[in-house]
Write a structure and sequence with these properties.
The protein folds into three domains: 4-216, 2-Layer Sandwich (Heat Shock Protein 90); 251-383, Ribosomal Protein S5, domain 2, CATH 3.30.230; 499-638, Four Helix Bundle (Hemerythrin (Met), subunit A). The chain is built from 18 helices and 23 strands. A hairpin with a 2-residue loop joins strand 13 (311-316) and strand 14. An eight-stranded mixed β-sheet has the order 1-6-5-4-7-3-2-8, with helices on one face. A five-stranded mixed β-sheet has the order 11-12-15-13-14, with helices on both faces. With 639 residues, it is an alpha+beta fold. The longest helix has 24 residues, at 358-381. Bound molecules: adenosine-5'-diphosphate and magnesium ion. Adenosine-5'-diphosphate binds next to helix 2 and helix 3.
């Protein structure tokens, strides 16, 4: 074959700069493209063997070698797959790729970089030019009588093709890295990228550092017993067996019945580097109407401050595509950790096209349904574990209900609430319990420490409350109230139920109420304070504060929007009311001795005590409280 020169000018000379800039936002993706091409080439050869069109030689070990050379700044990727004839190089590399490039240019010339393209337009090979100034191909086709082909292109508009020297079937691609991309010839960087994209590709992949001294080379290999077998292994690697960087048969491809718990846990640890064991998992395995496999893990949260942030890795035929593609995976599932492999996914399109793709929506719905099925199944058949996991999984489920109508419907009967005694109740069970005394009301606690005073009162009167202490609970209860007409969630400190009070006529309270209100406003130097006098059954309670449910929700929302530090009264009344118990001896004393010189100390101390049982005091309040407490103790010793 004579040396052939050709022009790549189909799409004008600026194709390469454009590919470099726009093809993929992550330049490291060239590793994925070239290694996956090698995998494809090997898969094709195996298929030909099965179809009887080719016979794989006995001692063939299919593999892909990635050789990095930091001194020469080269990367060499070799496969022993199908190879290419000169005609094929012409067709697949010189022509097809460029028609793909044409389509690509057409569609993306005006787009911004945000619109990252997933997959390619038959341009995978050309991603090499994002990192290389020059690329060479040496290839020998499996076809009998084929001649080796050498191709090279320096990233301009010209390529050169001629007879090569390759003696074994397969393809070798060498990248001469450009100045900005030398990092990719570093062994550690290469390993990092290969692990990211190629961990589950279906052919053994080996990374070799050509600069490593012989003893260093050993570090990348695993010693094995020197058996007779090793005589057959390639030249210098006689007594050592290199370790591939990938796992050829990922767990998600196995049938769920054949997987053990340990395998699931190992896989989780390896892929997500999470030392905590997952709570449980869902193995997705679907062939019809589309092909989808995967494993979704419910991670264990460390504590309530743990951010809810998972990772769902998306694969296409064992080739890593990207993390957390919102278009395919329902947003709330991104809180989980997992892998999804969907070979049918249309990848030749941009993200924005994915959004409007009906097929993608079906995938997303299917995954949602599977997750809801698993959870409801667990509730019905394994309630003990469901309750055990609830603290960890409830933020996730609640978030799902807020985000996804269908999921919310499916989960409706399987939302549970932990009550004051640690028991779990469904919404209807809670309502049933309160039917007699507080119809349609559910009391809740957001902070067991801060609200302990109220909790004790509730327990004494045998009124139940549920614990809702996660950030997600505030929007979630609003959601429940909208879904269940008439039902109200009321924080335990929002109002004093008549259960706690003695029955007295308004008239009876009116007089003392006025006196105490005037006194407290004067002593606390606070005109705005809402004060209410009641006769509580429990005479040990002197004072306490209630916070109106609506006002408090409003305040909480403001805080959530980061408006802290502003004067809360800017957003309307704080909703706080100081309750004074007319049955308490201290309050009675004040009523009888409003002019006492101790009134000041008493009023202020009672107010602070009420505040303390609601929330931590501000620094100034705390200083005042401590000084006053000392003064009170002083009075004790003076007697
Ligand atoms: P795609 O993989 O999407 O087809 P690529 O640009 O990655 O697009 O590759 C174009 C074509 O070049 C492939 O379809 C294949 O026919 C051929 N090819 C690329 N790399 C190899 C290889 N290592 N061995 C054999 N053929 C290859
Ligand atoms: Mg490809």
């Amino acid at each position: 074959m004579s040396t052939q020169k050709g022009s790549l000018s189909i799409n004008s000379e600026n194709i390469f700069p454009i590919i470099k800039k726009w093809l993929y936002s992550d330049h490291d993706i060239f590793y994925r493209e070239l290694v996956s091409n090698g995998c494809d080439a090997i898969t094709k050869l195996k298929k030909l063997d099965i179809m009887g069109e080719y016979s794989i030689p006995e001692d063939t070990e299919f593999k892909i070698e990635v050789r990095v050379n930091q001194e020469l700044k080269t990367i060499t990727i070799t496969d022993n797959g199908i190879g290419m004839t000169a005609d094929e190089v012409n067709e697949y590399i010189n022509q097809i790729a460029f028609s793909g490039a044409a389509a690509f240019l057409e569609q993306y010339k005006d787009k911004t970089n945000e619109d990252q393209i997933i997959g390619h337009f038959g341009l995978g090979f050309y991603s090499a030019f994002m990192v290389a100034d020059k690329v060479t191909i040496d290839t020998l086709s499996y076809k009998e009588g084929s001649k080796p082909v050498h191709w090279e292109c320096d990233g301009g508009t010209e390529f050169e093709m001629g007879e090569g020297e390759k003696t074994t079937v397969g393809t070798e691609i060498v990248l001469y890295l450009n100045e900005d991309s030398y990092e990719f010839s570093n062994e550690y960087r290469a390993r990092e990228v290969l692990t990211k994209y190629c961990s589950f590709m279906p052919v053994d992949i080996f990374l070799i550092n050509e600069n490593a001294k012989p003893e260093e080379k050993d570090s990348a290999v695993e010693a094995t017993d020197s058996t007779e077998d090793s005589v057959e292994s390639p030249e210098e690697e006689k007594e050592v067996k290199p370790v591939p960087i990938n796992e050829k048969n990922p767990l998600w491809n196995k049938h769920p019945n054949d997987c053990t718990d340990d395998e699931y846990k190992d896989f989780y640890r390896k892929v997500f580097h999470d030392y905590k064991e997952p709570l449980f998992w869902i193995h997705l395995n679907m062939d019809y109407p589309f092909n989808l496999k995967g494993i979704l893990y419910f991670p264990k949260l460390n504590n309530e401050y743990d951010t809810l942030e998972g990772t769902i890795k998306l694969y296409n035929n064992q080739v890593f595509i990207a993390d957390n593609i919102k278009e395919v995976i329902p947003e709330f599932l991104l809180l989980l950790k997992g892998v999804i492999d969907c070979p049918d996914l249309p990848l030749n399109v941009s993200r924005s096209a994915l959004q409007n793709d009906g097929f993608v929506k079906k995938i997303s719905d299917y995954i949602t349904k599977k997750v809801a099925d698993k959870l409801s199944g667990m509730f019905k058949t394994d309630k003990e574990n469901y309750e055990k996991y609830w603290d960890d999984i409830n933020p996730f489920i609640k978030f799902g209900c807020l985000k996804d109508e269908k999921f919310a419907e499916k989960m409706n009967d399987f939302i549970i609430f932990k009550d004051l005694s640690g028991k779990y109740l469904t919404l209807s069970e809670c309502l049933e319990e309160n039917k007699e005394r507080h119809e349609n009301t559910i009391f809740y606690v957001t902070n067991e420490t801060e609200q302990s005073q109220y909790i004790n009162m509730f327990k004494e009167e045998n009124i139940n409350a549920v614990i809702l202490n996660h950030n997600i609970d505030a929007p979630f209860i609003t959601h429940l109230e909208q879904k269940n007409e008439g039902v109200k969630f009321v924080r335990i400190d929002a109002d004093l139920s008549s259960v706690f009070k003695e029955e007295v006529s308004e008239d009876e309270l009116k007089d003392i109420s006025e006196k105490l209100t005037d006194l407290f406003k004067k002593e606390l130097k606070n005109d705005k304070l809402e004060i209410k006098v009641d006769k509580l059954k429990n005479e040990h309670i002197s004072s306490m504060i209630t916070v109106n449910e609506e006002s408090r929700r409003m305040q909480d929302m403001m805080k959530a929007y980061g408006m802290t530090g502003m004067d809360p009264s800017m957003f309307g009344p704080t909703g706080e009311t100081l309750i004074l118990n007319a049955n308490n001896t201290l309050v009675k004393y004040l009523l009888e001795h409003p002019d006492s010189d101790k009134a000041d100390i008493l009023c202020n101390q009672l107010y602070d005590l009420a505040l303390i049982s609601l929330r931590p005091l501000s620094p100034e309040q705390m200083t005042g409280f401590i000084a006053r407490s000392n003064e009170i103790l002083q009075l004790l010793v003076q007697e």
